[in-house]
Amino acid sequence: MLLLKVVFAYNGPNVTVGAHVKLVPWVPQVDILNHASTRLFVTHGGVKSLREALCSSTPLLVLPLAAEQTLNGAIAMELRVGHVLNKFTLSSKKLLASMRELLGSASYARNVARLHDLFLDRPISALDEAAFFARRAIRLGNRPATLKIRGAQLDWATALHLPFAALLVVLCFILSC
């Protein structure tokens, strides 16, 4: 029997759960992921959740709900740092089997630890990088054209490629005659 302590962010009506499950309205996710006893992260698979799991060296069990989450889950599987379960075919048997595999195989913990090291290996710390850009902005002063995006200076017709679209319409008209 797989019996682990579970912390679950839940805002619904009162439900009865086992003594090993703690339902709370909000969870300090980063703190829990970085806790020494955290061994698995069951997540919807958003980008921030994947990043936080890698930064905390925690294997993932992804249950994608929408948008890019399915792709993120596929990436986690390809990198061998987690499993993905389909929300439409989810069963307690599949959930337990995936959890047992992720918790029982040391390869997932090794892979996520390796990616953690790669992900956090930076040539410059985040604080030093922020300080560099702050000093750069101060040094450059108030020069409006220096750091502006050129596309923001285009008129709306050019930004929407209307001259190009008009050219295509004219060419199609000429070729159809």
UniProtKB/TrEMBL annotation:
Extract the InterPro entries matched here: UDP-glycosyltransferase (IPR050271), UDP_glucos_trans (IPR002213), UDP_glycos_trans_CS (IPR035595)
- GO MF term list: glucuronosyltransferase activity
Task: Please give the catalytic activity noted in the UniProt record.
Answer: glucuronate acceptor + UDP-alpha-D-glucuronate = acceptor beta-D-glucuronoside + UDP + H(+)
Q: Does the keyword Nucleotide-binding apply?
A: no
The UniProt keywords, alphabetically, are:
Glycosyltransferase, Membrane, Transferase, Transmembrane, Transmembrane helix
* Any one of the GO CC terms: membrane
Which compartments does it reside in? Membrane
Keyword Acetylation (UniProt): no
Pfam family of this protein, just one? UDPGT
Enzyme Commission no: 2.4.1.17
Q: What is its main location?
A: membrane
Q: How does it sit in the membrane?
A: Single-pass membrane protein
Where exactly are the transmembrane stretches of this chain? Answer: 156-176
Say which family it is in. Belongs to the UDP-glycosyltransferase family.
Protein name in UniProt: UDP-glucuronosyltransferase
